[in-house]
């Protein structure tokens, strides 16, 4: 049995995202999990996601991974804070209010990328997630993302699907 | 005769980027132009670039468009500042030092996206570009990107290609 990722608990309606939707066959389909107090996502980029210089990952891919991993972390952290199992109703889904990425080093494209997230703060329906992106044993980027919970009135009635 | 975009002047070596490389057949191949003091990029997103909610564009796509359009703007602005025609040697190419995006409104996926950039400041080899992303007649996102010129020693000797 394979452990379910944060994104596997999203209702179908919210599962078409290019970055993290399990129902988007063209997308990145990232998967995030808890590792103690940190969340972790491992991603092996396809060669087409090259950046400005050959051999290095595209900055937009790095931003995308940090974005979606942070949204998943915000949802998982909120379930935790509410002492609820992931996937219980009402479903939690976050959207990005702001995204900041500092690119510290070029990220090699020919290996595994690891993004590790940490909840920096929760303020009502707003969760701030900071993260670092590692490749080749080095921190190549840092992210800070403000996630805001999608309001219930924008969530379809039947989110059990 | 079609007017050449900023990205059409990048040397081949720097033209494989997923966001703006004209030689990346899988990528977005964005095109940026001057419109007076502003730079403009029009992009029609493919349906696969859906975001967290159906019908809206992926935040990672928005970040990617802002990122690559800002890199192009930084290069074009530096050619202008040096009173040089685009494409003259030595070739100019920028990489992203930091990227910040504020998502103001959901961006509709079923139409045209316009990104308009403006150079906020130049400090040596560093150029700050601010931009706004418009769709459906509204400003849906704002970006601020710090671009840094790729050093000559990382640029291949023959950049005339």
Summary?
The structure is a homodimer of 161-residue chains. By secondary structure, chain A is α+β, with helices and mostly antiparallel strands.
Oligomer: homodimer
Biggest pleated-sheet summary of chain A: 6 strands, antiparallel
Helix content of chain A: 10-25%
Q: What fraction strand of chain A?
A: 25-35%
Secondary structure tally: strands of chain A: 6
- Write down the domain tally of chain A: 1
Strand order, biggest sheet of chain A? 1-2-4-5-6-3
**What separation lies between the terminal Cα atoms of chain A?**
21 Å
CATH architecture of chain A: Roll
Which residues of chain A form runs of ≥5 with pLDDT under 50?
Answer: none
From the spread of the alpha carbons, the general shape of chain A counts as: globular
Give helix and strand order of chain A, one letter per element, not per position: EEHEEEE
CATH fold assignment of chain A: Thiol Ester Dehydrase, Chain A
Quickly count the helices of chain A: 1
Q: How big is the Rg of chain A?
A: 15 Å
What is the CATH level 1 assignment of chain A?
Alpha Beta
What is the H level of CATH, i.e. the homologous superfamily of chain A?
Hotdog Thioesterase
Q: Mean of the pLDDT scores of chain A?
A: 94
Please state the structural category of chain A.
alpha+beta
Biggest interface, CB < 8 A: A-B, 40 and 40 residues
